[in-house]
Design a protein that fits this description.
The chain is α/β, with parallel strands linked by helices. It contains twelve helices and 18 strands. The strands form two sheets. Strands 1, 11, 12, 13, 14, 15, 16, 17 and 18 form a nine-stranded mixed β-sheet that branches. Bound molecules: pyridoxal-5'-phosphate. The site of pyridoxal-5'-phosphate (PLP) has 18 residues, from helix 10.
Length: 401
């Protein structure tokens, strides 16, 4: 499970709940996607909102990735992690103009996803080239909260507004160097990407100075045992061929970009938590843990499935449990799960906790957030200490009462 390192020993040493990330799995995923394309000019930007621990960002930098950032703070973290400004694409949504001014000053690539922003761009930054985020209205994605391509989505500029975009670009003399789409998460069917590509190609014919086309992300990863994964090999073959054809028609070899988050880090992460109590009610056996929706909110927020195992006693006879957190809120991680018999003190493990796990954690119920450990080169490294009571008070200011 954790690259030959005993997870129980890690929990002993660093306490629970504990996030553990395996760098070897991140590298495997990065190489799977970069190796899938025969088109030579492919660039993978790590969508770091999935997991912005600076060490994880440094690993992707070391392996040659660029970075996709959705806030100016992520841009600053990326620069600190060693990324060059030109390797960072800044793709915010409803960010204020001051953030864009700062991004322009820092020299990162800028992705605009609203017409008013485009209209104002020429006032101060006419010479700073832009990427435009187009919403192709492909309905894709596993859950309505992560599908961002529908017609009334707040993301991107509708493909139907392209004539308006072109008028602004021409009248303001803007330089458009990239086109972008990102239609949501958990896209199963490779043909969705190919349909998206055709829509971007159609738009690209109207912009003569492009350098890149960014197809976003949405790569699905398996969560359940029989789940399927986006077939990146099939995508790489089909899209490489079609992209090369388009480039020869366009007259220039454009860079083909993707920006996966989940695909790169989800399977690399585990959340370990300890059973505080097993509670039998009239109809259900609850396994309660020393964690909750404050540390892993995906099951409650998206209805997402995380495999759960008993690490302490993996060979005990399975029983049916509903696994819940310790937060005063209904925080059910999974109902009616078959898990090897659990007793108080056992360590349970959640799989696929690398993406949007720690990052979406909070201090709700005034509980501190977990530590993070990175397994790298056969060694476990503490990369974020556990929070303490002092951390909870750190930003508070006591006034005279
Ligand atoms: C969140 C996000 C991604 C990454 O999505 P995943 O489903 O984690 O791969 C990529 N691009 C943009 C613009 C995003 O907001």
């Amino acid at each position: 499970m954790t690259g030959g390192i005993d997870p129980l020993q890690l929990c002993q040493e660093y306490g629970t709940p504990l996030y553990v990330y395996d760098a070897a799995i991140m590298e495997r995923q990065y190489k799977a996607i970069t190796g899938a394309f025969t088109y030579p000019n492919v660039r993978i930007h790590y969508a770091c909102k999935a997991l912005t621990n600076i060490n994880v960002m440094r690993l992707f930098h070391k392996w040659g990735a660029g970075l996709d950032c959705v806030s100016i703070q992520e841009v600053h973290l990326g620069l600190q992690a060693g990324f060059k400004p030109e390797d960072i694409l800044y793709t915010p949504n409803f960010a204020g103009m001051e953030e864009f001014d700062e991004a322009a000053r820092l020299g990162v690539k800028i992705n605009i996803d609203a017409i008013p922003m485009l209209e104002n761009w020429g006032l101060q930054h006419r010479d700073v080239p832009l990427c435009i985020r187009i919403n192709p209205h492909l309905m894709a994605g596993g859950h309505e909260n992560i599908s961002v391509g529908h017609i009334d989505s707040k993301f991107g500029i509708s493909i139907h507004q392209l004539p308006h975009v072109l008028r602004i670009v021409e009248s303001q003399g803007l330089r458009i160097e990239g086109l972008h789409m990102h239609t949501g998460s958990d896209i199963l069917d490779v043909d969705v990407f190919l349909m998206g590509a055709e829509i971007l190609f159609e738009a690209a014919r109207k912009f003569p100075d492009l350098k890149y086309i960014d197809m976003g992300s949405g790569f699905k990863v398996p969560y359940k045992p029989d789940d399927i994964e986006t077939d990146v090999v099939e995508l790489g073959q089909k899209l490489s061929k079609r992209f090369a054809e388009f480039c020869s028609e366009y007259g220039r070899d454009l860079t083909l970009m993707f920006e996966p988050g989940k695909f790169l880090v989800s399977a690399a992460g585990y959340l370990f938590a300890r059973c505080t109590l097993v509670k039998q009610t009239t109809s259900t056996v609850f396994v309660g843990l020393d964690t909750g929706l404050n540390h892993l909110i995906r099951p409650m927020f998206y209805g997402s499935y995380h495999k759960i195992i008993n690490v302490t006693e993996p060979t005990f006879k399975p029983r049916i449990y509903t696994v819940v957190g310790n937060i005063c809120e209904t925080d059910t991680f999974g109902s009616d799960r078959r898990i090897a018999e659990v007793v108080e003190g056992d360590v349970l493990c959640f799989y696929n906790a690398g993406a949007y796990g720690w990052m979406m954690s909070s201090n709700y119920n005034s509980r501190p957030r977990p530590a993070e450990v990175l397994l790298y080169d056969g060694t476990a490294h503490l990369i974020r200490r556990r929070e303490t009571l002092e951390d909870l008070l750190h930003t508070q200011i006591s006034i005279d009462l």
